[in-house]
Amino acid sequence: EEAFGGRFPDSVLPTMETCGEVVEAIEEHMGGKLKDRSAKPHAYEVPEEDYRFEKSPEYQRLQETFKLTTASGLPNPFFTVHESITNDRTVIGGREYVNFCSYNYLGMSGDPTVVRATREAVAKYGTSVSASRLVSGEKPLHRQLEQGIAEFIGAEDAILFVGGHSTNETVIGHLFGAGDLIVHDALSHNSIMQGAILSGARRRPFPHNDWRALDKILSEIRHEYRRVLIVVEGVYSMDGDYPDLPQFVEIKKRHKAYMMVDEAHSIGTMGLHGRGMSEHFGIKPSEVDLWMGTLSKSFGSCGGYIAAKREIIEYLKYTAPGFVYSVGLSPANAAAALASLQLLQEEPERVARLAENSRLFLRLAKDAGLNTGMSNNTPVVPVITGNSEHALRLSHQLRERGVNVQPILYPAVEERAARLRFFITSTHTAEQIRATVRATAEELDRIDPSYRGADRPLPELVDGQNALADPVMPPR
Ligand code: PMP
Predict the structure, then answer these.
(1) Whose CA is nearest to atom 2 of ligand 1?
(2) Is the C-alpha dihedral spanning 62, 68, 73, 75 positive or negative?
(3) If you take atom 15 of ligand 1, which residue's CA is the nearest one?
(4) Fewest CB atoms within 10 Å of the CB: 179, 182, 198, 369?
(5) What is the CA radius of gyration of the chain?
(6) Alpha-carbon distance values, 134 to 138, 325, 329 (Å)
């Protein structure tokens, strides 16, 4: 693209596997507008789209996506303003809704104990640490939180970053490079792919959760590379399923690869005590090289971490660009995550309640004939509607009935995989869940009467009450 000054349409990129196909695609898609940059300077006109952003194909593509969303006449579902703490409830435009849009899985954001600890930290240390930790930004809270996370997970040590996304980007981007191979699940989060691209390593996705396909790839090409990194997620945030981790660990060992597990949605939610996928599967934490997680979900804060062997953490602390050249985690964020971590260990019943709520939601949704895809008793439950317009409409109709749930539309997922995504939290009540599944099924019947199959019963409402109209406050 640089050489010929054009762009391939996105749809063409995955079809090019050989050099020959690249040549064909250049002829087919750039043939008419090849720009000869070697021509004399005065003979070359820089097209407007290359210096006026609003004319660029990138911006025009975004406008096309907006058109798809607004064609239905329904309001824009993005950037909704929430005027309160978001847990099982939220307030939008002055009205209270039952909420399934936040990954405040354990109710830590807004919890009075967490808020108190955060206030005290801000009073003591201020609102910023005002420097990189390496050079005078270090506060006692940082090491307390790192050691707490390492101990909780069962790793030797941990390092904090200011964002979950930037954790993946900077750590993968920094640890691996040209001559290495990064193999990741095809449904990996954007931060993993960005890190892999940044690294300059060869990047190969394998089909979702398919450890056999991964094994085959590595059997064929492991020897061509110096280091290999396998990246999977604990719980997949769009589908609510998880990998068969022991199988991946066995493959990682056999092929002498590194392995990273992104626990953004599994730390605090999986395993009896919320210790994540190692606890869920009963595997030794030392069998995975990089346990990555975020502070923004179960830990009610903002930031990310890597828990790993002492040597890896030491290396990252002195060399990872997103750590060395970035400010240390703010006192408020460190204190909120530390208080959440302590509370989680003192109150494992939060994890149990979350697991119970997740199971109840999934069971009721399946009974009602909703298509929950691959969801597997995790706090992420999609309801696949089959197209973006139905997802948008369903979300809108549920909002009218007092339920807030985000639609996930094309191009975030394939058009036929458009969905609503329900995030379950420990603070939801069974009544809220029952009433929501029932409302979802009823509204889907209105949109597409054939969707659920005829005569399928709707979930019972407790005592015949509409729990959405009169939600019961859960214990805090
Ligand atoms: N990894 C995964 C799997 C995620 O879903 C997310 C975002 N929710 C991130 C990383 C980035 O984390 P954060 O939002 O805390 O930056």
Answers:
(1) 264
(2) negative
(3) 164
(4) 179
(5) 24
(6) 7, 9, 12
Query: Both tokens of residue 374?
Result: 């691959």
Q: Output the residue whose Cα is nearest ligand 1's atom 16.
A: 164
pLDDT, tens digit (0-9, with 9 covering 90-100), for 292-339: 999 999 999 999 999 999 999 999 999 999 999 999 999 999 999 999
**Rounded Cα distance, 290 and 184, in Å:** 14
Six-digit token pair at 59?
A: 């911006």
CA 181 to chain centre: 23
State in Å: Cα 164 to ligand 1 middle.
5
Residue 296's identity, in one-letter code, is S
**Protein residues whose CB sits closer than 6 Å to any atom of ligand 1:** 163-165, 168, 189, 191, 233, 237, 262, 264-265, 294, 296, 304
- Of 191, 235, 261, 297, best ligand 1 pocket probe by most atoms within 8 Å of the beta carbon: 191
Rounded Cα–Cα distance for residues 257 and 241 (Å): 24
**DSSP structural state of residue 74:** P
E strand spans, 209-278 = 228-233, 258-262
Confidence at residue 40, expressed as pLDDT on a 0 to 100 scale: 65
Percent of the chain with pLDDT over 90: 81
Distance 162 CA to ligand 1 centre (A): 12
Residue with tokens 């990138």: 58
Distances (CA, A) of 75 to 59, 90, 246, 389: 21, 19, 45, 12
Q: How far is the CA of 265 from the centre of ligand 1 (A)?
A: 8
Cβ neighbors of 306 (< 8 A, separation 6 or more) are 158, 159, 161, 167, 171, 290, 291, 292, 312, 313, 316
Apex 350 CA angle, 349 and 355, nearest 5: 95
Residue of 294, 378, 380 with the most ligand 1 atoms within 8 Å of its CB, for mutation: 294
Q: Which two tokens stand for residue 102?
A: 């936040």
Here the tokens at position 428 are 């939801």
Q: Which residue has the tokens 């407790």?
A: 462
- The neighbouring-strand residues paired with 90 are 97
Q: What is the whole-number distance in angstroms between the Cα of residue 185 and the centre of ligand 1?
A: 15
